[in-house]
Structures are given as C-alpha cells and as structure tokens.
Design goal:
alpha/beta; Rossmann fold; 16 helices
Length: about 400
C-alpha cells in the first residue's frame, strides 16, 4: 500500500480519502464528502473500467452540497482497495457480479446505513448496481445505471416440461460472432474478448507509448472531445453491425493489442491543454494508481462475464425485474448504450418496471461524471426529488 497523499492535491475541497476495513473480505478505499454531520442520506457511486473512485471527484462535492453523504469506493480489483488476489491464474469467483453486489451491501452496512438514498453505477458498476436493486430492493431503494444498460437477469427456459426437444442448447453465439468479425475485411475483434486474454494486462500496463500516454488516448477517444464519436443504435448483434463501432470497441485485428488500437487517437498537445475535465495532474493520479497495481484485477470481470459456470448463480433471479425507481443516463457521444444491441430496449420494456426516461447528456462521451458533472448532478437530484420523502437516513 502506497503512503503518498491520495490525489496529490487534486481532490476538490471537502472530499477526503480513507480506508474502511473488513468489508466482505476487503479493505476498501473510499472517497467521500458530506460526512461531517450524522444522519445525512447516503449516495453510493460505483465506478467502471478503467476508472477509480477518483472518477467521481467532480460530482461528489455537488451531491454533498445538496445534503448527501456521498461515498465512492475503489471497487474490488481496483486502486487502493486491497484483499483481492492479483494475477491471471487466481480464482475468479470473488470477481463475480453477485460478490460485487455483496461488496456494495457490506459497505453500506459498514458505513452505518440500512439503505441508500441513491445508488449509481457506471460502466462495469452498472450491472453491479442492477443486481443490488434486484437482490436487495429494501437497501437499494433507487438505482441509476450509466452507460451500460441492463437487459435483465439470465432466465431459465419456460414451459418446456412437455417438449421433446432439449431446452438446453450449447451457447456458441460468442464464438460464432468472433469468427464472423474475424472474417470481415479488414478483420475485427470484440474488445471484451481481448481484455479476457492473458496478454491484455501487460499490454495496457507497459504499452510502447507509456502508461500515461496510453491512458490519455483511452480517455480522449471515448469522450465527446474526439469528433469521431457518432453513436447510434445497432440493428442486431451481427459482425456487420458491430463493425460500425470505433476500433476501441471492435478492435482492428491487424493491430493485435489495445495499446496499438488506441495509439492512432493520441490527442495533440493543444487538445490535452483544452481538456478541463481531466487535466494532466488529474491524469497523473490514474497513471500512479494503475502503474502500481496494473490492470489484472480490473480485467477479471471480463473473464467472469462469458463463463457460464461463474454466472450460473445469476439465474437465481430468473424472471425477476428491477422494481425500484430507476433511471438510465448515457452520453450522447458514448457508444456504451448501444454496444449490446437491443439491451437498451430490453431494460426499458422488461428488465426495469419503474424506469424513468432514457437520458443522454449532450457534451458527454463515456466519462459522463467527469465530462459533464453539472448536467449529471441536475438529473440525479431531480430524480431523487421525484422519489419524495422516503426515509433514507442512517440507523
């Protein structure tokens, strides 16, 4: 564990960094604000990849000023949170979605709360937030999903008792899609499959251009700053449709690593200087944290998702819907809402029964809470206000 002051002076006033011990087997690093007075309602913010609790730094003080105790943890596998095993050959069960859900539940309890006023999950934090609302709606009484829509829990086959044909068919869709993408001209490959490989960690940790330059290009190309982001819904999960996405999502197989795919998008010195939502000193925090830990813990989720054995427990929620008030927020320049074709519609029509509007924020790409924290906070606070006078205090 590093002893350097967190953020090297870049944290906004009123935001503190501290450790909370013995949280579902972890020592959890959090950023928080609004902690000075007891009894404030809790706002819990779950980051995605390759982000950290630090990614919420612009939003945390805004929500705290509105009267909330705001907490953003480094999730399992990320940043200064410890207690997880770092390596490619370690057991993956601790990185499952439901154990991430238990991490969130244990953190709420450790903080002395019975429930949250609002739970927000971005990117990889979005499915964890969704399962929090599915599993414990008494604790997570409202949920906001960002960038990654939730299509619903995997379901058991229905009404098959009298069928002579086996309802259980081998799931080869991912393999067929990978083959179809590789057969395109030029050949393409889905980024999630790459991130699950043994080589991905070292490539991203020690890229030829250096870690700081790699992270700068990665944040830039997935933001509204890159003019090439013109996302739109895809008609189906086919190779031809997915190939419309930029090469940071559907990679150019001629450039076999993520660092090679990202390198052509390196912003100019003028573009870096113009980036007020992620200054060089702020990016240096990411460089320091990932330089220390590498990416393997963060990448473990990408190896869990396609494994049917590690996801079998999710079928416990077969047929269950998110029944607490919910909201989806994306960036108008973010491909994330469309990366899984059909998921946005499934979430809105089936998976969540009390879903508000689908909000897409202008001037934001994937990093909504960093690019447009003011517009995001307006939506979040309006959503909470609509919920009325429910008791969300501690105790």
């Amino acid at each position: 564990m590093t002893t350097s002051p967190y953020g090297e002076g870049t944290l906004p006033k009123g935001v503190r960094s501290r450790m909370i011990h013995e949280v579902n087997g972890l020592d959890v690093h959090i950023l928080e604000a609004g902690y000075e007075s007891h009894g404030r309602p809790l706002a819990l913010l779950l980051h995605g990849f390759p982000d950290l609790a630090y990614g919420w730094r612009h939003l945390i003080p805004i929500l705290a000023d509105a009267g909330y105790h705001v907490v953003a943890p480094d999730q399992r596998g990320f940043g200064r949170t410890t207690g997880w095993l770092n390596g490619y050959d370690v057991p993956l069960e601790p990185f499952s979605l439901l154990n991430g859900t238990r991490d969130a539940l244990a953190l709420v309890s450790a903080l002395g709360y019975r429930r949250t006023a609002i739970l927000v999950g971005h990117d990889l934090g979005s499915p964890i937030a969704a399962y929090c609302a599915l599993a414990r709606p008494d604790v997570f009484t409202s949920v906001v999903l960002m960038s990654g829509p939730f299509p619903g829990a995997p379901a058991f086959p229905f009404n098959t008792a009298d069928s002579e044909v086996s309802a259980v068919q081998p799931n080869t869709e991912s393999q067929k899609l990978a083959a179809a993408l590789a057969a395109l001209n030029p050949p393409r490959g889905f980024y999630q499959q790459y991130l699950a490989t043994r080589e991905a960690n070292d490539d991203m940790w020690h890229p030829p251009q250096g870690l700081h330059a790699f992270l700068r290009a990665f944040f830039y190309v997935k933001s509204a700053d890159w003019p090439g982001n013109k996302p739109h819904p895809l008609k189906a999960r086919t190779a031809e449709e997915l190939a419309q996405m930029p090469t940071y999502y559907v990679m150019d197989l001629g450039k076999k690593t993520m660092s090679q795919n990202i390198a052509p998008f390196q912003p100019s010195a003028a573009e870096v200087l113009a980036c007020k939502w992620l200054t060089e000193p702020e990016l240096a925090v990411y460089t320091e944290e990932y330089g220390r830990t590498g990416f393997q813990g963060a990448l473990s989720a990408y190896r869990v998702y396609p494994d049917p054995n590690l996801n079998a427990e999710l079928r416990l929620f077969s047929g269950r819907t998110i029944d607490v008030p919910s909201l989806f927020i994306g960036g108008k320049s973010d491909w994330g809402p469309y990366a899984a074709p059909g998921a946005l519609d499934l979430m809105r029509t089936k998976a969540a029964t009390r879903m508000g509007d689908i909000e897409l924020i202008d001037g934001a790409g994937h990093w909504i809470q960093q690019e447009q924290p003011g517009r995001l906070s307006t939506l979040l606070l309006a959503f909470i206000k609509e919920l009325g006078g429910a008791d969300h205090t501690s105790g």
